[in-house]
Amino acid sequence: MKNETVPELSWLDDPEVFRVGMLPAHSDHIFYDSEESCQNGEKSLYQSLNGAWQFCWSRNAAVRPEKFYEEDFDSSSFSSIIVPGHIELAGYDRIHYINTMYPWEGHLYRRPAYWQEGKGGYPGQFSEAEYNPVGSYRLEFDLMKELWGKRVCISFEGVEQAMYLWLNGHFVGYGEDSFTPSDFDLTPYIREKGNVLALEVHKRSTAAYLEDQDFFRFSGIFRNVILYAKPEVHVEDLWVKPVLHEDNHSGSFALDLKLSAAGEALESLKGYQISVALRDKAGNLLLERKIPAADQIFLAPEELPELHPWEHKTPYLYHLEIRILSETGMLTEIVPYDIGFCNLELDHGVMKLNGKRLIINGVNRHEWNARTGRVINEADMAQDIACFHENHINSVRTCHYPNQISWYGLCDREGIYMMAETNLESHGSWQKMGQVEPSWNVPGSIAQWKEAVVDRMRTNFETFKNHVSILFWSLGNESYAGDNIQAMQEYLREKKDRRFIHYEGVCRNRAYEAVISDVESMMYAPPWEVKEYLENNPKKPYVLCEYMHDMGNSLGGMKSYIDLLGQYEKYQGGFIWDFIDQALYVEDQVTGKDVLRYGGDFDDRPSDYEFSGNGILFANREPKPAIQEVRYYYGLYE
Amino acid sequence: MAYMNSSDKMKVVFGDVVLGVHSKGAFGGEGFEYLFSYSAGGMESLAVNGREWLYRAPKPTFWRAVTDNDRGCGFPFRSAMWMGADMFQQVKAIRVFLDGEEIKDFLPPGNNRFQGEVEASSLEVSYAYRTATVPETQVDVSYEIEKSGRIQVKVHYYGREGLPQLPVFGMRFVMPTKADGYVYHGLSGETYPDRMAGGTKGRYEIKGLPVTPYLVPQDCGMHMQTDWLTIRRSSVLANNVKPGKDLSAESFSITFESSGNPFAFTCLPYTAEELENATHQEELPAARRTVVCILGAVRGVGGIDSWGSDVEKDYHIDAAQDIIYSFNIIPCFE
Fold this sequence. Notes:
The complex is a heterodimer of chains A (638) and B (334).
Chain A: E1 19-20, H1 35-40, E2 46-48, E3 51-58, E4 79-83, E5 97-98, E6 134-141, E7 151-156, E8 159-160, E9 162-167, E10 170-175, E11 182-185, E12 195-202, H2 207-210, E13 215-216, E14 220-221, E15 225-230, E16 233-244, E17 251-261, H3 265-269, E18 273-279, E19 285-292, E20 296-304, E21 318-325, E22 331-339, E23 344-347, E24 350-353, E25 356-357, E26 360-364, H4 378-390, E27 395-397, H5 405-414, E28 417-421, E29 431-432, E30 435-436, H6 447-464, E31 470-474, H7 483-494, E32 500-502, E33 520-523, H8 527-534, E34 542-547, H9 558-567, E35 571-576, E36 584-587, E37 594-597, H10 627-636
Parallel strand pairs in A: 26-27, 26-35, 27-28, 28-31, 31-32, 33-34, 34-35
Antiparallel strand pairs in A: 1-10, 2-15, 3-4, 3-6, 5-13, 6-12, 7-11, 7-15, 8-14, 9-10, 9-12, 16-17, 17-20, 18-19, 18-21, 21-22, 23-24, 24-25, 29-30, 36-37
Helix pairs in contact in A: 4-5, 6-7
Chain B: E1 10-14, E2 18-22, E3 32-37, E4 43-48, E5 51-52, E6 56-61, H1 68-72, H2 75-79, H3 81-87, E7 89-98, E8 101-103, E9 118-120, E10 122-131, E11 138-146, E12 151-157, E13 168-175, E14 181-187, E15 201-207, E16 223-226, E17 228-233, E18 252-258, E19 263-268, H4 272-277, E20 290-298, E21 323-331
């Protein structure tokens, strides 16, 4: 047994500690151990831990049940909570909506660690705060038989905001990025029966400075919790590199794989074979290769003469299957993945997809459900996609954090262009009362904040890199610009990924213009300002990452923007702000009816009140009347 | 829609406080009876076959419940005067024309000379309203009644330099009870001058009086480019009319139609001020009336942002310019 790390509360205060004992981010592939389960989509190597957990809420770390992770801890005083769900919607703590201000504004005087040169951090800023709620989650569970005897890992797909994990009394790890999966290896401590999993969630940490999105400020386990068991030999990561050549019908296929084995890695892989098969929709085999297993495999580009390009109207997907076969030819693991081929290029300053000028008829989309907040289900997603199609919306920006995993595959299948945004927004650190005021700003160029944001970029990239629908990586939202955001872009550049890199914040600090963002991206620029840029030797293609702010009954004047598409080749469209109102159903104290409530309705202060209601849909997914205007104008350029 | 037999002349009653005009039946009988008050500031009654269509005298309207963008760009602060003007106004002159000829000295005791009902083929009553603004301006509203019962309403806003932009301008009719719904010929959905490209021209039937459930109640339900609007009710305030008996499940309707240029309208259970006053939908009072605004000018709703940008210039209403428009009210006798 390895030396156990001792968890420290001080990690909450330290921007340089954001993942401890966490597995490296990896592609979001599903795997099976038999042809049959693969065909039927029976995820027999997975065990969901969603459901009722034991729960205890504490106002701060000092009063939390510190030893709750111990196996013999008496948890009889704990109550119950449904996972996934927000703590605030389960009857604890206060619901709070606030836009750009940090949620402690006016309550506490805070500055981020290391903001002043030569000065240090602020020990205790979060770990010793009088108000920094802690959710102590405990779950006793038996391992499903199918997972016995295998390497077992756990994936928390979304936990806000800082989490400490224990299994059977042993500390496992720590993580901060709320909107990407946090995976941990449980193998050293897991048992077939009677496991005690303990998760301690702290509402805020230094990550709070990086997660200042304009939304309800929730905490807790709000996405799936899943155990998975790796077969003897396992694909840890796959990176598909489909290329569509400039002729837009031939292309190539390359693949990088990372494998792991149950025993001593290299020895255990001996004799194993990897079989790679690529098929078209009709099942015709385009390519088949057999390669000896190794911990890293690079399948060099293979030419494919005739391909169906992937695009909005024809989202053609090819079916990739990777099989791991033992020496005797027995199937050990099979990984299916749907991929697409598209050709993204910058041609004389115009973004092109498959040789055609890219037009973005987009929306910004927060994950939202008026009853469950950012906990949304497959039906919500399906409804959103149907609404996209009905209204000629071809693009979505995952504002301002990575979304649930299944959304990406849905966009692949449905031909929705994605701007995949990284979980980063530090709005309150540079814009104060509407003015650019970066006297203190994170991540900026502060060395101690660099790795945290690069890691957020890395996790976003590594998790979703195989999704053809992603045409843009977005470095984050409204976080000003500095060396650290430049480092995020450099990370992507090193990956030699063909997608466009997007970041709007550089327009607030043009010193970084040459090294951040492939596109000139603005938000809420009036039409005449867009024109001004485009008529003065535009260096980059232009996209409005947010426009047509549809707060309440406010969508109008869309023509002036849509006309620009016909006037300037380098104007390539925009993303309406936004898709769905963020408001919550509450039982009205007076009438007893379910009514929609917004910021300030929970005695939450300071608040930005109804500023979260800017959707072209109401919070209950009913369309606002203005949607017919969107349908008309987006229909002109579909 | 059945018109009255147009060979019959209508009867005009030069009362002391109220000027009345009716077809054959006064006091809630068959036909129409319209009352124009000298003291209540406008047309006080519009009764058709005994069914009353007015709760209070219709007045010019100058306000819409501000939208989130209006608020964000400071519009209500700049134009707040018009909210007061919308709520409070004063009649400064009333004129009467009978068969095209102006009648002077129609107030008591001058009216003693009429001796009885006066027959006429047409009657025009016009009201001049002062606005509670600084500087003050004027709105003329004239009702021209034909013997068929059709009313042509002509509205004239006198532009005046120095007044802030208007959010809206038109006439507001408040009906005694909540309508069952309405039918109109115009654009689909909720449209505004800067948001009507997506509207499709056609005939649309709306059940009830839906209020678009914006998080914070605000102006809503605007319909641009309308040719006609028919409102249907089946309830009355009259104590001697029993629904299901006298009304025998029947409903009754009235139509507003364009006279030349299409108009814009809203048909909601609330006034702009009632909407303005609520921070949530559930704070709106119980819906009990029908508030119809027939509008000659509508401000856009904008969309650039909600914290400073005004709606585009083409969609402002310049209060220095005159606004002149007209429409017809057509009673239905079925």
